[in-house]
Amino acid sequence: MKLQETAKLMMLSSTATAEETDGLGIKTKVGFVVGFALGFVFMQAMVFLGGEADFRQLFTDPSSAAAKQVNPLGQAFEASLRNIQDAANGTTKNTSRVATTDALAKPQEEQPAMTADSLFQLPFYIYDNELDWSVNATVTRGTNQAELLNQSGFLGYKHSDDYWLLLHAKQHPMRTMDPSKADLFFVPTLLSAWNAHGYEGDASKNKFCAHNGICNQKLLERAEQVLQESKWYRRSQGRDHIVVDTHWRKHWNKLPYSRLLNCNSISFENLVPTDGNPKGHQIPTGGRVHIPTLYVGRQCQDETNKTHDFAMIATFKPGNKNFLDRAHICQWLEQNNHQQNYTVSRCGGGDMCPALGQARFGFHARGDTWGSNRLMDTFLSGAIPIMTSPEQRKILPDFLPWEDVSYMVDLSNSTSFDTFIQSILQKTPQELAEKRANISRHRDIFQTKSKGRQFDLYMHKFAQMLELY
Ligand SMILES: *[C@@H]1O[C@H](CO)[C@@H](O)[C@H](O)[C@H]1NC(C)=O
Ligand SMILES: *[C@@H]1O[C@H](CO)[C@@H](O)[C@H](O)[C@H]1NC(C)=O
Ligand SMILES: *[C@@H]1O[C@H](CO)[C@@H](O)[C@H](O)[C@H]1NC(C)=O
Ligand SMILES: *[C@@H]1O[C@H](CO)[C@@H](O)[C@H](O)[C@H]1NC(C)=O
Ligand SMILES: *[C@@H]1O[C@H](CO)[C@@H](O)[C@H](O)[C@H]1NC(C)=O
Ligand SMILES: *[C@@H]1O[C@H](CO)[C@@H](O)[C@H](O)[C@H]1NC(C)=O
Ligand SMILES: *[C@@H]1O[C@H](CO)[C@@H](O)[C@H](O)[C@H]1NC(C)=O
Ligand SMILES: *[C@@H]1O[C@H](CO)[C@@H](O)[C@H](O)[C@H]1NC(C)=O
């Protein structure tokens, strides 16, 4: 059996749980354990424990941070969340829904496709058959009626980059409609949406469907079949194919064989398909390239009105050592051992906005995993990120020099923390202005929804790493 046929997932840490600050307020208790079942061809790389998350929670609480956050879609998004809640409550849907969601799908910031400044310069093809899961895409949660994906609230979710990158792919100037002219193939399956909704464990209740009502596992099976039948896929076994697969949850790895897995991917942090080799970051013989997700961030309004120095809005899991950094940051800021002169708009849970927008600096400390949308939220809200570990940079794509757009605090102990705080308060206005200018220069990379630059950079990077230039 070929290694590539046994592609399986593996994460390089042994246990983890879902990031609890899921963009739309997922409070899932689902955990996953990763094992390296060496020697087992069809190893189950990830075993899902616990009950499945209540998917209504995903989109319901309008008082949650997510609902209050203003993103580029602004009020439309809030209104959409309200509508979603109406739907969850079983009341009649607001008739302004269609107008609202039109606005959702067409953010005001949206720009026409870039032209001259596009970095990626190779013709690429987007499958326009059943692999395009954005066609008639619907989600069903629990006993709710099916809703269109683009009206479901998913588009504000931190793992909605599958949707947004596809949107920008379709507008990219290097797109060709002739597959015989393409150097790269973009597979328009929406695996993040699929993983967010297409619950295998509760397939009767939670569904992700596309086309003529093909749902969940069947959708995946159909995609495998379409790829198998594609002469372009068969030609390369996926070597020149790219798929977006950024959700942390990987239900599809239950398939014994996955052509989707044998594509290059935009992946979740360091979670990439492997053949089970615990040292392998990539399928050893496949030579596939996996570039980590940037997460879809959200923005607080009035991000230029800085009234405070520091903010960190996050969840806390007392007793979980992965969350210790977060606890220390708030504790040590509060203690202010050296009587330094600073203010904190918010350190703790609750609403991200306006606190993050009011702060000059935003801490980005690990939770369940090294990454999260918090870093992007911080950039978009006009705050300078303070990262807490070099590991956080390793799970990001190297599109930009992260040290030029952030600071790094040493959280070894309260002394090292206080020293850092002192040093940052003493930064000259010139240095801070330069840091902010560095961030501004790259800001469009984080505007996943409205700007095509992120897609362009990913494709350029794939082309480089696959040595196509
Ligand atoms: C419907 O939603 C719109 C936008 O959120 C709101 O302005 C309007 O008042 C709502 N109408 C009803 C009847 O709830
Ligand atoms: C939906 O129901 C919840 C719980 O009963 C309630 O708190 C909330 O206000 C309702 N939302 C709407 C929009 O009616
Ligand atoms: C939303 O999705 C549906 C079904 O795929 C599509 O027909 C519709 O055009 C989409 N709406 C927008 C505003 O993109
Ligand atoms: C999308 O849904 C419409 C209405 O249900 C249906 O007529 C059409 O065939 C579907 N499109 C595809 C590509 O399945
Ligand atoms: C800036 O924020 C402060 C505190 O939230 C508020 O009082 C003030 O009006 C704001 N200024 C501007 C120009 O928005
Ligand atoms: C603290 O900083 C504020 C604003 O930067 C300033 O107005 C105030 O005088 C400072 N207080 C002390 C005790 O240095
Ligand atoms: C800003 O970016 C430049 C590289 O473009 C870098 O040399 C410089 O150190 C950065 N400035 C700050 C304050 O990080
Ligand atoms: C705090 O951490 C720093 C840097 O890791 C270390 O050099 C120092 O000895 C530590 N101080 C205390 C009091 O533990």
UniProtKB/TrEMBL annotation:
Record-given protein name: Exostosin family domain containing protein, expressed
One Pfam family per UniProt: Exostosin_GT47
Transmembrane segments: 30-51
Family as reported in the entry's similarity comment: Belongs to the glycosyltransferase 47 family.
GO molecular function: glycosyltransferase activity
Domain Exostosin GT47, chain residue ranges per copy: 123-422
InterPro entries the UniProt entry points to: Exostosin, Exostosin_GT47
Keywords tagged on the record: Membrane, Transmembrane, Transmembrane helix
Organism annotation: Seminavis robusta
Domain of life: Eukaryota
